């Protein structure tokens, strides 16, 4: 199946540019048709964590009020936050609950923001920022376990997908804090994902192995799938999209 996903990726035609606006007062997008509910993103430094929380809270309120069919929630960090709307699988309503720099503890503490929505699917990707901050594997996995339990309790009708932590670009990375990435062996991420897969199974969630799609023969992030060894390129998001199309529900249950 991994080979199939990569073959589909190679056959896809990419849009050349995925830009962002420079609005310093981002409005909320209320168009539910094959879109995700997300602000138009301004420069990252202009939005504090609390400002992001308020934005996500308001978007979740709209989702709870409108109850769009086939709602899928993206819960995570900047990798989810920057998912290009035009690359999200169609025929779903999307609520993006990503925040740049988010950790497992941070996500756990704000899951209540979308308690009153009725998602068909919740997609969780979180953990790389914990590793960057030096948080232990045990704490990361315990938080992941608690995240799954919370989502299963609050959204029993939803399918919960735990997505693997992606590798980084190692020495080829150009991210501004590259030295922090180099302190995290990609083999550690692979082992962490193996344990995360078991936790997902034990907690009644599904595990989506994206890690295997993004690694090169050395076990590092494939250069064409990343902009800086940490964040994803349009090609990387297209691979992610393809995996979502194959593994997540194609129609209402």
UniProtKB/TrEMBL annotation:
<dbReference type="GO" id="GO:0004622">
    <property type="term" value="F:phosphatidylcholine lysophospholipase activity"/>
</dbReference>
<dbReference type="Pfam" id="PF13472">
    <property type="entry name" value="Lipase_GDSL_2"/>
</dbReference>
<dbReference type="InterPro" id="IPR036514">
    <property type="entry name" value="SGNH_hydro_sf"/>
</dbReference>
<dbReference type="InterPro" id="IPR013830">
    <property type="entry name" value="SGNH_hydro"/>
</dbReference>
<protein>
    <submittedName>
        <fullName>Lipolytic enzyme, G-D-S-L</fullName>
    </submittedName>
</protein>
<feature type="domain" description="SGNH hydrolase-type esterase">
    <location>
        <begin position="86"/>
        <end position="237"/>
    </location>
</feature>
<dbReference type="InterPro" id="IPR051532">
    <property type="entry name" value="Ester_Hydrolysis_Enzymes"/>
</dbReference>
């Amino acid at each position: 199946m991994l080979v199939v996903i990569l073959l589909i990726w190679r056959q896809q035609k990419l849009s050349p540019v995925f830009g962002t606006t420079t609005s310093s007062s981002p409005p909320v997008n209320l168009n539910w048709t094959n879109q995700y509910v997300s602000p138009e993103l301004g420069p990252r430094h202009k939005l504090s964590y609390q400002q992001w929380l308020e934005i996500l809270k308001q978007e979740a309120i709209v989702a709870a009020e409108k109850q769009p069919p086939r709602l899928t929630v993206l819960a995570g960090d900047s990798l989810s936050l920057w998912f290009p709307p035009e690359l999200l699988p169609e025929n779903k309503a999307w609520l993006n609950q990503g925040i740049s720099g988010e950790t497992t503890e941070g996500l756990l503490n704000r899951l209540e923001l979308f308690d009153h929505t009725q998602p068909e699917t919740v997609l969780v990707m979180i953990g790389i920022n914990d590793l960057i901050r030096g948080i232990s594997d045990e704490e990361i996995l315990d938080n992941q376990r608690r995240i799954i339990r919370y989502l299963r309790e609050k959204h029993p009708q939803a399918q919960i997908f735990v997505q693997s932590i992606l590798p980084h670009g190692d020495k080829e990375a150009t991210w501004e804090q590259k030295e922090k990435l180099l302190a995290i062996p990609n083999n550690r991420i692979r082992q962490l994902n193996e344990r995360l897969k078991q936790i997902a199974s034990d907690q009644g969630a599904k595990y989506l192995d994206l890690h295997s799609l993004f690694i090169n023969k050395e076990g590092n992030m494939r250069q064409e799938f990343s902009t800086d060894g940490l964040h994803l390129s349009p090609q990387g998001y297209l691979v992610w999209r393809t995996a979502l199309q194959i593994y997540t529900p194609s129609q209402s249950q």
